[in-house]
Amino acid sequence: MVVGDVTTGTDVLVVGAGPAGYVAAIRAGQLDLDVTLVEKDAYGGTCLNDGCIPSKALITATDVAHDAGNAEEMGIHADPAVDLAGMMGWKDDVVDQLTGGVEKLCKANGVNLLEGTATFADENTVRVSHSGEGQGSETLEFEHAIVATGSRPIEIPGFEYDDEPVLDSTQALALESVPDSMVIVGAGYIGMELAGVYAKLGTDVTVIEMLDSILPGYDDDLKRPVKQRATDLGIEFHFGYAASEWTETGDGIRVVAEPTEEAAADGGSEASAEPVEDDTLELDAEKVLVAVGREPVSDTLELENAGVETDDRGFIQTDSRARSNVEHVFAVGDVAGEPMLAHKGSMEGQVAAEVIAGEPSAIDYQAMPAAVFTEPEIGTVGMSESEAEEAGFETAVGKFPFRASGRALTTGETDGFVKIVADEEQGYVLGAQTVGPEASELIAELGLAIELGATLEDVASTVHTHPTLSESVMEAAENALGHAIHTLNR
Ligand SMILES: Cc1cc2nc3c(=O)[nH]c(=O)nc-3n(C[C@H](O)[C@H](O)[C@H](O)COP(=O)(O)OP(=O)(O)OC[C@H]3O[C@@H](n4cnc5c(N)ncnc54)[C@H](O)[C@@H]3O)c2cc1C
């Protein structure tokens, strides 16, 4: 069917059906608003199709194989064979279940779904172009718009994603065969998670990072066990290097990296696998994965026609109610800025819908958690010890190592700790950091503690099931109070 130049209207237009946009649309539907969700590609956005879900599925699957093959201590002797097509097929099934679920939930909440690419024509109108030859476009008028167009991988000069051996994270989550070797450019969370996946599949993985450590932004004590475990898996690191080009070698590629000015001035980073000096690095590999960060998708929307402004990185700047500089246009999720995390976008999406419905909602980032699904995992929420001190708090800090946890010992995963940071005077929990087994799950309790204004006493006096990893949270709070039972108090 050719869609002609029909003009329709909606109270709330949501552009982009990722976790920010579809959550905004569902919440708007729940609030009885007339809402239309426009998506150009696949329901669920990056998170469900190319990000959180497929990466976590592959992390789990490769963990199963790796753990089974490395459990001699438990008396298990196995040599699991991985059928990559089967593994990818299972991952795709998980994705399909979730994306199908999003579509059903939207419909069940009265959301009008429209497939196509939206561009702003003016302050109250978008053009929606339908893909496919002869599919045409239509015009949609709106009272309010919520921009939720997400982000895309940053490309670095010389490493275009169209070139076959150069992968972005999306392509790296859908390989048809296990590469013998892979260079990963970037040791942020996406690079580190995928480094673990491929190292466990048997790929020789080398990571190049411009900075002097993995996972920029995380405290050193959280990163240390992750770096150690990655090294144990055979992952090689080169810090203080920037990838500059790649060439064909006949049986693969050669990735060239130059020391960054800072690294050259330092004479090399001590964490580097090889002395940096001022040597150019040349690494032979089958594939190169570029994971140097993501940039907002705001340049394809013709935002200027609606008068919506972006900052110099392309993020739409918003206030605490998710509003852009144009009163009736909201922006949520990755396109609205850091942290680029799915749950942050979903929270902003709900707030935007509620504000449009006239509710007194506002965004609160105080208890925003983050997780890195490396081995071991990292989970953080609220303030770190140094952030709390910088904010002027006298801190009370408690720590509990997993090696003292009965449950951690029974899982064979004893690296890491739970750390809790509180206000010394009042006892309020200000933040927490954990690295270790199930850190991504454990951090939720600490987020709730911050959200509810709980004190160390509240956490310590909450009875936790035995034997569980969550007892470590209680023990860390007890440690901060000076009366932990299963570790020495500081
Ligand atoms: C490999 C990887 C792993 C990740 N792991 C995690 C994790 O474990 N936890 C976590 O919290 N986050 C994770 N993320 C980040 C997470 O995926 C993003 O933060 C999240 O998807 C952002 O949601 P969003 O709705 O803002 O945008 P997106 O999910 O990017 O969705 C935007 C949607 O808008 C659509 N769109 C864009 N322009 C238009 C247009 N003009 N018209 C119509 N539709 C349009 C796109 O097609 C897309 O579907 C990961 C990301 C990657 C790449």
UniProtKB/TrEMBL annotation:
Q: Which SUPFAM superfamilies match?
A: FAD/NAD(P)-binding domain (SSF51905), FAD/NAD-linked reductases, dimerisation (C-terminal) domain (SSF55424)
Keywords associated with the record: Disulfide bond, FAD, Flavoprotein, NAD, Oxidoreductase, Redox-active center
Q: Which cofactor does it need?
A: FAD
Q: Which GO terms describe its biological process?
A: 2-oxoglutarate metabolic process
Give EC number(s), comma-separated. 1.8.1.4
Q: Which InterPro entries match?
A: Class-I_Pyr_Nuc-Dis_Oxidored (IPR050151), FAD/NAD-bd_sf (IPR036188), FAD/NAD-binding_dom (IPR023753), FAD/NAD-linked_Rdtase_dimer_sf (IPR016156), Lipoamide_DH (IPR006258), Pyr_nuc-diS_OxRdtase (IPR001100), Pyr_nucl-diS_OxRdtase_dimer (IPR004099), Pyr_OxRdtase_I_AS (IPR012999)
Catalytic reaction annotation: N(6)-[(R)-dihydrolipoyl]-L-lysyl-[protein] + NAD(+) = N(6)-[(R)-lipoyl]-L-lysyl-[protein] + NADH + H(+)
Q: Which residues form the Pyridine nucleotide-disulphide oxidoreductase dimerisation domain?
A: 368-477
Q: Where is the FAD/NAD(P)-binding domain?
A: 11-349
Q: Which PROSITE patterns match?
A: PYRIDINE_REDOX_1 (PS00076)
One Pfam family this sequence matches: Pyr_redox_dim
By its UniProt entry, which Gene3D superfamilies does this protein fall under?
Answer: 3.30.390.30, FAD/NAD(P)-binding domain (3.50.50.60)
Q: Which GO terms describe its molecular function?
A: dihydrolipoyl dehydrogenase (NADH) activity; flavin adenine dinucleotide binding
How the cofactor is bound: the record states: Binds 1 FAD per subunit.
- Which family, according to the similarity comment? Belongs to the class-I pyridine nucleotide-disulfide oxidoreductase family.
Q: What else is known?
A: The active site is a redox-active disulfide bond.
What is the official name of this protein in its record? Dihydrolipoyl dehydrogenase
Give the species this sequence originates from: Natronococcus jeotgali DSM 18795
